Hints:
It contains four helices and five strands. The protein has one domain: Aminopeptidase. The longest helix has 15 residues. It has a five-stranded mixed sheet with strand order 1-2-3-4-5, with helices on both faces. It is of the alpha+beta class.
Amino acid sequence: xxxxxxxxxxxxxxxxxxxxxxxxxxxxxxxxxxxxxxxxxxxxxxxxxxxxxxxxxxxxxxxxxxxxxxxxxxxxxxxxxxxxxxxxxxxxxxxxxxxxxxxxxxxxxxxxxxxxxxxxxxxxxxxxxxxxxxxxxxxxxxxxxxxxx
Length: 149
């Protein structure tokens, strides 16, 4: 397996990674993804993709380095997904290891992420990977129907 950080304008963002990312974020159209990526770049948004030996994208991670008062500096994982056809084969572990290396190189004190309460399989994976549950995440929808626009 090979993990590659995909930069702005890389055609693999849409061609390879977006189909895998859509398994976690089905609302993402190519247009919306481009808008989010364009707006998120100045905020530190980056993407990494995991590729199988045959060149197929099998995992995706969206992440950023954030400085704040609670963690000082952390790597926050916006998205972490393994293609459904390759779950439980080490892709998620490899992506997390890759992100942890980025975090350590950037002088981060933490690597953290949020996970929907209904994603119990993901929670088991995160606990096996030695991530701890340390907070509740509260959200107030600012749209009428609560959906992501």
